[in-house]
Amino acid sequence: MSRLAKEKQFVAAFFEEAGAEIIASFQKNLTIETKSDRNDLVTNIDKQIETLFVQRVGEKFPTHRIFGEEGMAAEIDTLDGPVWIVDPIDGTLNFVAQQKNFAISVALYVDGIGVYGAIYEVEKGDIYTCEKGFGAYLNERKLPKVSSDAAISDHLLIANLSAIRINERLFEAIKESRGLRLYGAASLEYMYVATGRAGAYMSANLAPWDVAAGKIIAEELGCIVTRLDGSQMNMLEKGSSIVALPHVHKELMQNYLR
Ligand code: IPD
Ligand code: CA
Ligand code: CA
């Protein structure tokens, strides 16, 4: 039986509150700052939503720690105990430029193991959720497992330029596939693979908050999630990432990535 009723209810209420703040922000001027480079943006809304999350976790789960992109909670250097990993807006460039193709990503890890993941595509009103071991859902609908035998040639691939630049053999994989796509929000790109809309999504450099929820949901549905060299991810470190249908992962590893 599900053990996380309180946590699920908490995330649903947070999404409702945060989604309303984000939609209200569409009518207001944003304050936009750059971080590591001119395309690495943070807005006042990213900070506002992460601050809200920290405040709400503090009220409901005062012993839980938080690992968030905008650093609104105390720093952490271990994943011991319950840790929420949050990206208040994944796809900030899309949020600023398009007001769509962005999401809030929230995951709960306990002693380093992902137990609950939720991704809210605010503009569409779509919420993906998964308690590990209890299936994954899109809104109220239980999602089917992905196909285990579909090959690269049956699917679109999603890849960041960063991934292609460090591994030129990916050009050959893309030629073998049905074509290349790129959406600009890692959490949603994980969901495109988890729901069979693409065979794989590859990036050379993602942060834990980009993938923490997506990994739980995608693995529950039968996808394989690793670094580009096939090694396991550590949710404290940035690094490369591939999420793929099982057979596509195998083909990419055998023929293109290693
Ligand atoms: C970014 C998006 C983007 C990915 C970047 C991430 P942000 O997240 O997920 O798709 O390519 O590496 O940093 O900064 O918009 O939360
Ligand atoms: Ca992100
Ligand atoms: Ca972000």
UniProtKB/TrEMBL annotation:
GO biological process, one term: inositol metabolic process
Single GO MF annotation: metal ion binding
Cofactors (names): Mg(2+)
Binding site for Mg(2+) 1: E69, D87, I89, D210
Cross-referenced Pfam families: Inositol_P (PF00459)
Chain positions recorded as Mg(2+) 2 binding sites: D90
Record-listed E.C. numbers: 3.1.3.25
UniProt KW 4Fe-4S keyword: no
Alphabetical UniProt keywords: Hydrolase, Magnesium, Metal-binding
Name of the protein in its database record: Inositol-1-monophosphatase
Organism lineage: Bacteria, Bacillati, Bacillota, Bacilli, Bacillales
